[in-house]
Design goal:
33% of the residues lie in helices and 16% in strands. The protein is α+β, with helices and mostly antiparallel strands. It has a five-stranded mixed beta sheet with strand order 2-1-5-3-4. Strands 7-6-10-8-9 form a five-stranded mixed beta sheet, with helices on both faces. A hairpin with a 2-residue loop joins β3 and β4.
Length: 287
């Protein structure tokens, strides 16, 4: 198994998006044309908001109100949480089962992903404002520390980075540079591989609910067998995963791919983890 090649393939995944300006925000009567952009699955909305904002700026009623700090994207009237990776947002909110292909061109979840840019009535109960680039950087860095703590019982691998390494890691995320990012992220992950792994840093998202499950997932089950996707989900959500081997009510999705229940987490995690250090799993409900 070529770990680097698989990581690169995951890193290069993207979601083509069609972004429209909400009509109430526009100063022109005619419909404003959409902005098309391909967002990397392994990236985050705030890193592309300035580019999106520049496109729509000439059409805004009042840029003192419709400013970048007040901007947010929504999907089917639901504000998108900007601190969640793009791939997680798409898989969760569309709820698509990647094993099912629709021949209907009018399928509401067909690509490009249709999003709406808004400014008025900021949904403060659902998402935080991005006051500056430092806001997102701080939130992302805290997630990285939290993930390291979940794996090792401490965050020394992140806290021990030099200022230069921390800056390079952040810049690699900003510019979506795989080689630069993994040159440093490998150092963070190697402490987990070399030292005692306490648990996996995993988050599971239940569709159509606000539930995000984050609990310690030990690397081995009681009989000292490697923890698999199926055994982990059975322990976290037995009501949705009554079987450890067969997806009965729901299928686990990572990076837009349905993952086999028998996949060992020790093999999956170093390949499929997101830039915040977590393995994010969304669910495609059966039926």
């Amino acid at each position: 198994m070529d770990t680097v090649a698989l990581r690169r393939a995951v890193w290069n995944g993207s979601i083509p998006c069609r972004i429209e300006l909400d009509p109430s925000e526009s100063r022109v009567f005619d419909a404003v044309g959409p902005y098309f952009i391909s967002l990397p699955r392994m990236s985050y909305i705030p890193l592309y908001m300035a580019e999106i904002y520049r496109f729509f700026t000439p059409f805004l009623i009042d840029t003192s109100v419709s400013c970048l700090e007040n901007a947010w994207l929504e999907f089917e009237t639901v504000p998108l949480k900007w601190h969640w990776p793009v791939g997680v947002l798409y898989d969760l909110f569309t709820g698509r089962d990647p094993t099912v292909t629709s021949a209907d061109e009018e399928d509401e979840h067909s690509l490009p992903w249709k999003l709406v840019l808004r400014f008025q009535n900021f949904p403060i109960k659902h998402i935080m404002r991005i006051d500056s680039g430092n806001t997102f950087q701080g939130v992302w860095l805290n997630c990285l520390k939290e993930a390291a703590f979940a794996r090792n019982g401490h965050a020394k691998a992140v806290l021990g980075l030099s200022k230069s390494e921390s800056n390079k890691l952040w810049e690699a995320l900003q510019f979506h540079n795989f080689d630069h990012f993994w040159n440093i992220n490998e150092k963070i992950l190697s402490e987990t591989v070399a030292g005692p792994l306490r648990s996996f840093s995993v988050r599971v998202y239940v569709p159509s609910t606000p539930r995000v499950i984050q609990q310690p997932i030990p690397p081995y089950v009681d009989n000292n067998e490697p923890q698999t996707v199926g055994t982990a989900l059975n322990s976290l959500l037995p009501e949705l995963f009554p079987s450890k081997r067969t997806p009965v009510l729901s299928r686990p999705v990572i990076h837009g791919v349905v993952i086999s229940m028998s996949t060992p987490l020790i093999e999956l995690f170093p390949i499929a983890m997101y830039p915040d250090g977590f393995l994010h799993i969304t669910l495609a409900m059966s039926g």
